[in-house]
Amino acid sequence: MPAVTVEDILVLPRVPGSDPATARTRPVVSVTTAPRGFEGEGFPVRRAFAGVDLRALDPFIHMDQMGEVEYAPGEPKGTPWHPHRGFETVTYMIDGEMAHSDSNGGGGLITNGDTQWMTAGSGLLHIETPPEHLVMSGGLFHGFQLWVNLPKVMKFAPPRYQDIRATSVALLSSADGGALVRIIAGEVAGHSGPGSTHTPITLVHATVSPGAALSLPWRTDFNALAYVLGGRGTVGDELRPIEAGQLAVFGAGDTVTVAADASQESRSPQLDVLLLGGLPIREPVVAYGPFVMNTRAELVQAFEDYQAGRLGSIPAAHTDVRGEAD
């Protein structure tokens, strides 16, 4: 898992240690295992939120872990052109490459540690595909896509695209230097990530060394989730076991705690975990396929608008943010 790393973690700003006398570590409410499936043209995913009450996830709607898979030449796959309305998609690449194009003019190529943040808002069409050279060569592919809901007042916001380079994320060290913390969006201990969000959230990718623990201050009005991308460890003061492909939901408190087992498999020598949380929207959610709305009438209208071509048209050609043709 390359993402973004540093040669000397000890030079980074450190997350201050929590005071045991005053910190309220969030208890673990549940640990669930993500089932496997396929998305788009057939790339393997794990449905991270399957079986979890939407009220515990709010403002998040859906999350897929894409891969981890080693493709043979000719095997890499993506998604065909498809519509979205009413929410934001966050695509984070850990290994491999993914190209994005949309009918609003957004797009680019992301690779190790980069993020594409697309606000669908009022609606658009988009496509995600591996670049041609990766299709020809094959290779490792691993990442995730998160869907973040938009409140009613923002459902029809103008579409927006953010290209977030790995080098722009905020990097922190745990208090003892045993964990690397990458802040993609939101704020942790006074440090903010580059992602600009309509819905207040925090999104962190942490790598915890074997035998080390990580405690992060967490907004009390946010929910808190931890999804393990690789490795084994525990969550909470209860030391609840957790491993790759599992999601922990935390209860109320002001600190989130994860720890890595002292012994790890050679394929995943450290604990890699996504920590995410946000301010619950607490509005009705009516979702089907690529649309996330507040009412059934809005959902029907989204399908009608798509069929009528009102969500945009597929561009004849697209130039990404670097000026290269896809």
Number of helices: 3
Named CATH topology? Jelly Rolls
Low-pLDDT stretches: 318-326
Helix content: under 10%
Number of strands: 26
Largest sheet, order of strands side by side? 1-22-19-24-17-14-13
Topology:
Elements: E1 28-33, E2 36-39, E3 43-47, H1 54-57, E4 60-71, E5 79-84, E6 87-95, E7 98-102, E8 107-110, E9 115-119, E10 124-129, H2 132-137, E11 139-149, E12 160-164, E13 170-173, E14 179-185, E15 187-188, E16 191-192, E17 201-208, E18 213-217, E19 225-230, E20 232-235, E21 240-243, E22 246-250, E23 255-260, E24 271-278, E25 286-288, E26 291-293, H3 296-307
Antiparallel strand pairs: 1-22, 2-3, 3-4, 4-11, 5-10, 6-9, 6-11, 7-8, 7-10, 9-12, 13-14, 14-17, 15-16, 17-24, 18-23, 19-22, 19-24, 20-21, 20-23, 25-26
Q: In a nutshell, what does this entry contain?
A:
This protein has one domain: Jelly Rolls.
Which structural traits does this protein have?
326 residues; Jelly Rolls; 7-stranded antiparallel sheet; 7% helix; 44% strand; globular; Pirin; Pirin_N_dom
Task: Give an overview of the whole structure.
The chain has a single domain, classed as Jelly Rolls (Sandwich), CATH 2.60.120.10. The protein has a 7-stranded antiparallel β-sheet with strand order 1-22-19-24-17-14-13, with no helix packed on it. It has a 7-stranded antiparallel β-sheet with strand order 2-3-4-11-6-9-12. A 4-stranded antiparallel β-sheet has the order 5-10-7-8, with no helix packed on it. The protein is mainly beta. Keywords: Iron, Metal-binding.
